[in-house]
């Protein structure tokens, strides 16, 4: 029994925080897990910037409403889901992911949730579990699945390395150079072929 575990941002959809950084004119928000391996530290820093600028969930959701999946992502996901089980493992939040999942025909996603005050200020966040991607992959393996994983960032390395097959996709030159043992691909066609070969 195989299950494919995919990261969301940078793999299937553009990076939400980069899009919001451009929409809000706050370049500091372009920092992502490609730049900062410590997700907790990154999120606390982001929330501080949002508070400083008086921005909340509504403003971010307005940006997300204009984001479309990466070209070819939906066809790739449709094809993949027709041949095997697929789950998206993301460090994003339910409040961000929902409109994007709709555009991808509602694939299964495991992600986190935000703490939002009545005035719309994002006051905190709740992680589903520690090291959520690696923990989920190990959990799936514990119930009889063999996992195949793909992602683009530091926080994807654990699930990629723990899986029977793992691939970097549209990653950075630094991550690719640091991990030459992980096959790296740039197109959905290449990634689909690699996953099919691993099934």
Describe the fold and architecture.
By secondary structure, the chain is α/β, with parallel strands linked by helices. Helix content is 44%, strand content 20%. The longest helix has 15 residues, at 39-53. The radius of gyration is 16 Å and the shape is globular. α3 (57-64) packs parallel to α5 (94-103) and α4 packs parallel to α9. The chain has helices at 16-24, 39-53, 57-64, 73-83, 94-103, 132-142, 157-162, 173-178, 188-198; strands spanning 2-6, 85-93, 109-116, 122-126, 146-151, 165-169, 184-185. The protein starts with a strand and ends with a helix. The protein has a seven-stranded mixed β-sheet, sandwiched between helices. It has a domain at 2-13 and 70-112 and 128-198: HAD superfamily/HAD-like (Rossmann fold), CATH 3.40.50.1000. 34% of the residues are buried. It is built from nine helices and seven strands; from the N terminus they run βααααβαββαβαβαβα.
Order of helices and strands: EHHHHEHEEHEHEHEH
Q: Uncertain spans, ≥5 residues at pLDDT below 50?
A: none
CATH class of the domain at 2-13 and 70-112 and 128-198: Alpha Beta
Main β sheet profile: 7 strands, mixed
Dominant shape? globular
Key phrases:
44% helix, globular, Rossmann fold, 199 residues, alpha/beta, 9 helices
Outline:
The protein is α/β, with parallel strands linked by helices. It contains 9 helices and 7 strands, in the order βααααβαββαβαβαβα.
